[in-house]
Amino acid sequence: MSALAHVPNEAPPANAPAVWLQPVASNSGAGTRAPRALIIVQNLPVPFDRRVWLECQTLVSGGYEVAVVCPKGTGDPGFAVINGVEIYKYKPYAPGGSKASYVLEYLYSFAATLWFSLKAARRGRFDIVQSCNPPDIFWPIGLLFRVLHGSRFVFDHHDLCPETYESRFPGGPHAVLKALKFLERRTMRSADHVISTNDSYRSLVIGRDGKRPEDVTVVRTGPDPDRLKAGSPDPALRRGRTYLVAYIGVMGPQDGVDIVLRVADLLVHDHGRHDVSFTLIGSGDCFKELVTLRDELALQGYVEFTGRAPDDVVKSVLSTADVGISPDPKNALNDLSTMNKTMEYMAFGLPVVAFDLKETRVSAQNAAVYATPNKIEDLARVLSDLLDDPERRRLMGAIGRERVETELAWSHQAARYLQVYDNLTRPRP
User: Which fold has domain 36-222+410-425?
Assistant: First the structure.
């Protein structure tokens, strides 16, 4: 998941060349004019959204002109051209965390996205419009450009919005859930092609939303092994202890970061392990609550929160850590979602501890050790056992790094993504 699925500190520097991309033939279906694509993103700025940025660079390398509409990050300009990608940015709406505030956020984001999409269209018509979720609200813009430009509409399926709602607001009004399923269904049926991030999402799109199998392609979110790899460890990051356990990712209600604190509490106070430090990288809706919980559990000396950290800090922590922890609890969302944090640990050669989730097993296989879902005591046990077994940690880390290099890296996904575009921009009978 792109809880983002969408992990802080993943984006490459704005001027970083996409050196890993293989040269590809330019699309020949659009005549002498380079085919032009619009990509719509709402939940993260670009290039901070790593998946979308890799998609942009893949399209540019394939001969496409690319424009992106997304929210601003801190200090971002309203318009920039980075590595050949036009990026139009609007001031983000700050949600308050309630269901009503999300509705207001999405209405505002839709209006801002429509305005800047029309602005971007002045530079040239769009052959393809791609929207990325969450949320599932931009299909009318895809249909609008189908009328205006004859554009094809692609949906990049990052998250399960109905299941995300259920995980964040358990027992919430059924009318909201029904509306989210309607928006998902309209998005899928409006799209000429759907790109799913794993096979579980693909099966759901075909079964729940009635999409034809040939119109759904799996393009996984893969780490860049040339950028995400272990460097020299920094012993000072262990803070005087033997072991370091790392977490990187979003800190929302469904991400289970409170479970990391409960695990630390069990190890330190119940099992008497004073040889383990924890470093938690990232931020989110629950950040302040998590810091408060840490202090209530008297873990100030054992657990450090960095907040959103720059890439060099992330690399230092993950290069020093002994284990990466993926605490996502089992629910309808997490069981079917690919956790980017898990693959990032693997890219750094870290063994992973996680609950036994379907798609986590698909990603990590033998690079992870799995605890009984949602059993915090069992997660603490498997973590403690792994810390005490250096040879197993070394072997699991090597397996994970090899899987990234040979199968999971974006370089293995890029051709499949580009093929979707090339097929849609070929002349139609």
Answer: Rossmann fold (3.40.50)
pLDDT > 90? residue 1: no
* pTM for this model (two decimals): 0.86
Confidence band (pLDDT; 50, 70, 90) for 308?
confident
Query: What distance in Å separates the CA atoms of residue 191 and residue 78, rounded to the nearest whole number?
Result: 28
CB 251 within 8 A of CB 287: yes
Are the beta carbons of 65 and 93 closer than 8 angstroms? no
Helical axes 139-149 vs 174-190, angle rounded to 10°: 30
d(CA 127, CA 425): 7
Domain residue ranges in the chain: 36-222+410-425, 235-408
CATH code for the structural domain at 235-408: 3.40.50.2000
DSSP assigned state of 86:
E
Report the alpha-carbon distance of residue 299 to residue 279 in Å, rounded: 12
- What tokens were used for 34? 């380079």
Q: Are 282 and 31 in contact (CB under 8 A)?
A: no
CA 331/CA 215 separation, integer angstroms: 27
- State the pLDDT at residue 22: 37
> How does DSSP classify residue 215?
G
Quickly list H helices, 211-370.
257-265, 287-296, 311-320, 340-347, 358-364
Q: Work out the number of other CB atoms within 10 angstroms of the CB of residue 191.
A: 25
Report the DSSP pairing between strands 85-90 and 79-82. antiparallel
Asked if the domains 36-222+410-425 and 235-408 are classified in one and the same CATH topology, the answer is yes
Determine the 3-state secondary structure of 348 from DSSP.
coil
